[in-house]
Write a structure and sequence with these properties.
The structure is a homodimer. By secondary structure, chain A is of the alpha/beta class. Chain A contains 15 helices and 8 strands.
């Protein structure tokens, strides 16, 4: 099965030949509280930065090591392969090499993942998901409400050194699909538009001072430097994957010369964000948005780069039975009050449609996708307000027959 | 789907109407080191008793709580349902109610499990898997090499009080299939035959002094007392499930009067034990053993009780490529040296056959089965000597298409 996948690795001239069918291993090596709140028990920490600062060192270590050994393992790679997928995107933290106390490194986990991937015929996209000072101020950037990384040249250099070490360690592994220099660096426009510090309030005002989005000039320079340090060590047929900074059409004049090859442009699209842009909360509304907004956008950019949708999912307000206001979670105090309690048939109709309409665009107009995420422990039964959030969990989407390559769904279709 | 399952709940007269299609949630609330060695890192503990005695209390707590929150969750119940199963057997420890320091109770986890089971239409068999002083001296009995429980009347009473509290708390839950008073109490004959203290050496010779198997007289008395305290609180249509103590034919004159109803006899059968009894290590050898030993045994006892095989799996030496000498694991220093490296096709042929031949007996002669186990983290790729041990992991057996109700296998058959 490896050869089959390998044969689709393209030259730059034929972007259509790339079609990644993958899933993110979110919340494994980079924590997100909403995906497993128990890890944060007994603390007020909302992000990875503050967790070790509120726990005794040995307790922090015990939680992290137990989590990392249990959350993803060999069996998950076998299961993902059985769903017909070919790749995993693995978010890793900037402290992966264990050189940023009090954090604990995790190269041994990534080493194991490469062995599992190669055993089961999957490819790994290494996604550097956080940076010191944060590149976006999201909780999943590791430091809520702070965005100062790009203003600290020594930390930009540190990230480049992490990328170089990743390329040295994994750049020639059969199981490597590519390396993504930084996840979701937020643009100046989006920093203001999303009102990040209201959504993710900073804990330490002093630390957050001067936070702002990343300029596109900075990102172009950073991506160029990152390309060079990665390519120095990584095999030519592997990819450098750059995130669009939420500005998909800003990259038409970037890395278009022959000097740069096997570069993928990564965009993240969620129906909950479409809703914030006015998308009607009906199946037809979602379909119209996907057809009229995302499809032309991705089709156009596919002229410049292979475009993947590196994060997306089935989550939407219609399926939740309540307007989620852009996916405000229970952690933000939104409890889903007044939600319509959808039955399993309604849920199936809504979420199957959400899967089919989105996958069509990611695959037919773009170069494929990674679902966000393989697994989350969010409990829709025992905790109030989380109804519908199982649509972020590919494990449950497959079990419910919502995802088209789900063996369960295939069986239903065959009868 | 609940109704469908409910309609098969039998009266005592029609044992054939019971057909349990289930899986154990082993290593969740009762630890077994070989199923997730990382939890025991940094200690020499081989069992649940010694683990908290070698770790600082807060580190022990951090490992246990993280493990319990991650190992089994809502998504696992949805996934098990999607495999076409109807029940889970959940091993619980004697300290489930949190009244035996230094252990940490786990009723909140079992409470959640009932909510998940009822949401997804699964039934739970609560299996009390350990007892103070141990009922078998196995590592999975919680205290290797020690078997003194039945000689301590106050601890026998303690176990009865745990059973009574379990029946009070869960006895009328829609999601309850039944309660098993004690897992694998070892008979005197088997204690000697298996040379338990050689296989599971005790840490503390003083504590192990006087260890011996449980007499059948003791077990009959204990089971009768257990039946009475459980039945006092548990709905009539739920089951009391008694393990055969590895003496399947010893129970023909037990609980046969009308006073006792909805009692299931549970036997555990593993091909690795058949090998120890001389079963030839070929597919035909296994088939002969299953047909000529297990089938008549179970068929006969089905005249007295509905008989389930509450533990079994696909594991066998042929599939491992090496004589495992009764499943001696890497933990016991057996490294699988000289193993034939089986390719995926050979593995599929061997393990599919092992599934089909065993399930036929469990279902057609007996009243169904629980596979051992839903999940184990044993890493066949990164740790030497574990090749073939994935055949204990139903998740991997389903992913590989070895298990007949696996949606993956069904798909292959349909094409």
């Amino acid at each position: 099965m490896d050869e089959e996948f390998g044969s689709t690795i393209p030259t730059m001239a034929k972007y259509d030949a790339i079609n990644i069918n993958g899933v993110n291993l979110g919340n494994w090596l980079v924590l997100e509280k909403w995906m497993n709140p128990a890890l944060f028990d007994g603390t007020t920490a909302e992000d990875e930065y503050w967790l070790p600062r509120q726990l005794p060192a040995d307790v922090y270590e015990a939680r992290m090591k137990t989590h990392r050994s249990e959350y993803i393992n060999e069996r998950d790679f076998a299961i993902i392969k059985s769903w017909g997928l070919d790749s995993v995107r693995i978010p890793v933290p900037y402290f992966i090499f264990g050189d940023r106390e009090p954090f604990i490194g995790c190269t041994s986990e990534l080493d194991k993942a490469f062995n599992w991937a190669e055993r089961y015929g999957l490819k790994i996209l290494i996604d550097l998901h956080t940076a010191p000072g944060s590149q976006n101020g999201f909780d999943n950037g590791g430091l809520s409400g702070v965005c100062t990384w790009s203003q600290q040249p020594e930390e930009v250099d540190f990230v480049l050194s992490v990328l170089e070490r990743l390329a040295e360690r994994y750049g020639n592994r059969e199981g490597l699909l590519g390396i993504q220099p930084i996840n979701e660096p937020i643009s100046e426009r989006m920093w203001d538009l999303m009102d990040i510090q209201k959504r993710y309030p900073p804990v330490d005002a002093e630390m957050a001072k001067g936070s702002k989005g990343n300029s596109l000039e900075f990102l172009r320079e950073f991506y160029t430097s990152a390309y060079n340090v990665i390519r120095k060590h990584m095999a030519d047929d592997k990819f450098v994957v750059i995130h669009d900074a939420f500005e998909l059409d800003a990259w038409k004049d970037f890395m278009q010369s022959d000097e740069y090859f096997n570069v993928i442009l990564d965009t993240h699209q969620y129906l909950m964000m479409a809703e914030m842009e006015g998308c009607e909360q009906t199946i037809e509304g979602y379909r119209n948005f996907v057809e009229n907004k995302w499809k032309p956008m991705i089709s156009e950019m596919q002229n410049y780069f292979p475009v993947i949708t590196g994060e997306w999912c089935l989550f939407n307000s219609l399926g939740c039975g309540v307007d989620t206001k852009g996916g405000q979670s229970v952690l933000n105090g939104q409890m889903g009050d007044g939600a319509v309690n959808r039955n399993d048939e309604e849920r199936c109709e809504i979420f199957c449609a959400a899967a089919d309409m989105q996958l069509e665009v990611w695959n037919e107009c773009g170069s494929g996708q990674f679902f966000w995420s393989y697994k989350l422990l969010t409990d829709t039964v025992n905790t109030p307000g989380w109804l519908g959030w199982d649509s972020w969990d590919l494990g449950r989407c497959v079990a419910f027959g919502w995802y088209p390559t789900s063996p369960v769904k295939q069986l239903i279709k065959n009868y």
